[in-house]
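During the reporting period, our protein records have gained a structure token line. A sample record is set out beneath this paragraph:
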Amino acid sequence: MDGTTGNSAAARSEAAPQGVATSLTTGALARRLGVSPTTLRSWDHRYGIGPAIRPDGRHRRWAPHDVAVLETMCRLTSAGVPPAEAARAARETAAGAPGEGRARAAAPEPAIGAGSRAAGSLPLGDVRRECRGLARAAVRLDAPALEQQLATAVDTHGLVVAWQEVMVPTLHAVGRRWASSGDRYVEVEHLLSWHVSTTLRRFSRPAAGSGGASALGPVVLACMPGEQHTLALESLHSGLSELGLPTRMFGSAVPAEALTAAVDRLGPAAVVLWAQARSTASLPLARRVAGARWGVKGARRGPLVVPCGPGWLGRSDPGMPWPTSLKDALDILEALYTEGR
């Protein structure tokens, strides 16, 4: 470095107010925290979480102390603490008071039906507090927070409650926002879906064998031809593995011939067919699968066909149970193995 450059840097440092040289602009801080500059300005206006340095005639600058306060603010709001309470706790924490702990104590987790109306600009309705934190993390594209909060939800509540009362309401909120705003929020939906899928697989046990006293085959899990939505099937796969029941997951858009060939080869105890939309719920294909038979003459048997998903509403045959929740589906399939069918 030559002397001219060094002198210029020193001159700029002297000309700037103390601390400005090491502080961040609003845009740089927003990128660092994963929020928008508008959010930072709103927090400053509403809750007094603003920069200590405000040079005359210059853009606001955020010093390390300001950054620490905002990092605490982001962490608390991502966990579902209301913004006003999170701001108060962030300021107290920065001042050396145990405010973060008081924020958690002052905001006890409500039961379903006792939440706020929106989080992270997503319309959530009345939901668990974890949904609000998950929504804020998704809108910020905060992958580490999503991963941590999803894992905590499963650890705390178990798979069924975490899926039905945390993951599903947040996914629905993102889906509604995406549908109503064109291409906006597609990145939010994709990131949240990927982390939900990753969490479900992480909590799945290794595939169980299909032997045992009853010698029942596995549960086949497949989306109908043309159906791309797999998360609900993934949650069922995780729940069945948690129960130690054998499964074969075939995922999205399984062609009809491939599905029937798999059923003939495996001799499954049950076949779960997921249809998100009515257009993919094919009753003739479900009947074809239900009509499959195998075994020795006089003791031939076939699978229990379990249509799942909103696409099957009012469309399944008698004898084809239509579970309306993850718990219902698990109860039906567990009973199948318990009774030895």
Notes: The radius of gyration is 27 Å. DSSP finds 14 helices and eight strands in the chain. Confidence is low (pLDDT under 50) at residues 1-21, 97-120. The longest helix spans residues 159-180.
